[in-house]
Design goal:
Layout: E1 4-5, H1 15-27, H2 33-41, E2 43-49, E3 53-59, H3 69-72, E4 78-81, E5 89-96, E6 99-106, E7 120-122
Antiparallel strand pairs: 1-2, 2-3, 3-6, 4-5, 4-7, 5-6
Helix pairs in contact: 1-2
């Protein structure tokens, strides 16, 4: 179980975070390109582990176009399953002023598994 903050040397998007962001963009259909562009340009400013999940804080440069409010309203939570957990974990993307600001991940039923490679992001229908 990880607790506390990651050191600066560990501040890169994980494979799991990238998969979650790809799924969130995919669900937006053609409108997901803006979220994908923000993801590519984002810089991680911090990551804190709670034992049951984590929060990764992001900063998107001002040179990248902000997401329009109607598009932001369509962004939904992404879920992932893990063989060590009886229920899926949830990822919530926070957007401030049209820019991706954080990824919050949490397990509602137990400690966050150490083996993140075993997570499988679950697909869902494109939101309207």
């Amino acid at each position: 179980m990880k607790l506390g903050n990651d050191p600066a040397s560990a501040l890169a998007l994980s494979a799991l975070e990238r998969a979650v962001l790809r799924e969130a963009a995919r669900r937006l259909g053609a409108d997901g390109a803006g979220l994908a562009m923000q993801t590519a340009a984002a810089r991680i400013t911090g990551r804190t582990h709670s034992g049951v999940g984590f929060v990764t804080r992001l900063q998107v440069p001002e040179t990248v176009l902000p997401l329009a409010a109607p598009l932001v309203a369509r962004i939904r939570a992404v879920h992932a399953s893990h063989p060590m957990l009886p229920e899926p974990v949830e990822f919530v993307l926070q957007v401030r002023d049209g820019r991706l600001a954080s990824i919050e991940a949490f397990s509602p039923v137990g400690q966050w598994p150490a083996d993140e490679a075993a997570f499988r992001v679950t697909g869902a229908a494109t939101s309207a």
